[in-house]
Amino acid sequence: MVKIGTIELGDFPLLLAPMEDVSDPPFRAVCKKNGADLMYTEFISSEGLIRDAAKSVQKLDIFEYERPIGIQLFGSDIDSMREAGRIADNAKPDLIDINYGCPVRQVACKGAGAALLQDIPKMVEMTSEIVKIATRPVTVKTRLGWDDNTKNVVEVAERLQDIGISALTIHGRTRSQMYKGDADWTLIGDIKNNSRIKIPIFGNGDVDSPEKAKIMRDRYGIDGIMIGRASIGYPWIFNEIKHFFKTGERLDPPTITDRVNVCKEHLDFSMRWKSNHAGIVEMRRHYTNYFKGLPNFKDYRLKLVTTYSYDEIITILNKVEKQYSQIEVA
Q1: Based on the number of CB atoms within 10 Å of its own CB, is 135 exposed (0-12), middle (13-18) or buried (19 or more)?
Q2: Which residue, of 101, 134, 174, 279, is most buried by count of CB atoms within 10 Å of its CB?
Q3: Are 102 and 113 in contact, with CB atoms under 8 Å apart?
Q4: What is the pLDDT of residue 330?
Q5: Residue 172 above 60 pLDDT?
Q6: Number of C-beta neighbours around residue 269 at 10 A
Q7: Domains present along the chain, CATH in parentheses
Q8: Distance CA 170, CA 173 (A)
Q9: Using 50, 70 and 90 to split pLDDT, how confident is the model at 13?
Q10: Rounded to an integer, what distance in angstroms lies between the CA atom of residue 31 and that of residue 33?
């Protein structure tokens, strides 16, 4: 049984990665329904949170059915991160996660996210301050290092464990790689098999099929896997991996009806959570992913991303279901 503090996650949990502009409550809802064991909010700016910025505060929204769920924070100022940790703790998540892995320029160039891999003492001090004030487990997500010459994640793992984090997720790339090239899980496996390491170690990067998940589990001995991009438009991946682990066989892929129904659920929740207008607009980024692999889908997509009418969207989705019901989607 894998545990983060007292949170029981099963024998080999599958985690939904925190993804900006993706892993909001509507998206998390369809992933939870399809087998995600632990989920995280979108990452939240400490500066936005302590200044009560509406967008940052809204990201604190969590629902009982989502549990266990973590609130993820990022920032570059230790005092701001401490105060943001206190605010997040008061929102009553199951855990607080600190992002030391985000590679995007807007984050890293401000000294947050993966930038902290260049200043391990500051990372340790920042983490320690949040561990001190939190009343629930604190976890961390990071990368192998800043670049190929500074793969310092082994030191990071040992030092963060020593000051009290309860689990560590490692993305198998450096910051300089961004999301290019193949993820290297070798160091992730080394950390998991390091006799000094007692906390759960989760691997992240390039797991996009049940077969690949099994390879990573068996080869590197990690405690669980975090899945990000492969779940976008395909929340079924969690249950597919679990079924493959249990039986050695693949589940039948979702039918076009399955895809349309989950897309509608996602849209409905998005509109309830934000507003009719904002829900419709923000759902647009998901249509291509839900219907990836459908031939000649371009015209439908164009209509879906230009209309502001809920009824028209439902009509289009019903037409998609009818037209493609006899086609096997890859």
Answers
A1: exposed
A2: 101
A3: yes
A4: 53
A5: yes
A6: 19
A7: 3-247 (3.20.20.70), 256-324 (1.10.1200)
A8: 9
A9: very high
A10: 5
Kindly report, residue by residue over 21-74, the tens digit of the pLDDT.
899 999 999 999 999 999 999 999 999 999 999 999 999 999 999 999 999 999
Peptide bond into 25 cis (omega under 30): no
How far apart are alpha carbons 281 and 275 in whole angstroms? 10
CA–CA distance, 60 with 12 (Å, rounded to integer): 27
Kindly report, residue by residue over 253-298, the tens digit of the pLDDT: 999 999 999 999 999 999 999 899 999 999 999 999 999 989 999 9
Return the structure tokens found at 271. 């509109």
Q: Decide if 31 is catalytic.
A: no
Question: In Å, how far are 30, 145, 208 from 249, measured between CA atoms?
Answer: 23, 36, 16
Q: Which of 31, 102, 109, 263 is catalytic?
A: 102
- Enter the tokens of residue 234: 């395909």
Q: How far is CA 199 from CA 4, 84, 109, 114, 157, in A?
A: 8, 24, 30, 21, 9
Using DSSP's 3-state secondary structure scheme, residue 286 falls into: helix
| Structure token pair of residue 250 | 């693949």
Q: Is 278:305 a contact under the CB 8 Å cutoff?
A: no
- Compute the C-alpha angle 246/248/254, nearest 5°: 85
Rg (CA), the chain: 20
pLDDT at 328 over 70: no
1 in helix, strand or coil?
coil
Question: What is the phi/psi pair of residue 58, to 5°?
Answer: -60, -30
What is d(CA 170, CA 186) in angstroms, rounded to the nearest whole number? 11
Please give the span between the terminal C-alpha atoms of the chain, in angstroms, as a whole number. Answer: 34
d(CA 139, CA 169): 8
Between CA 250 and CA 176 the distance in angstroms is 35
Give the integer Cα–Cα distance in Å for 38 and 18: 11
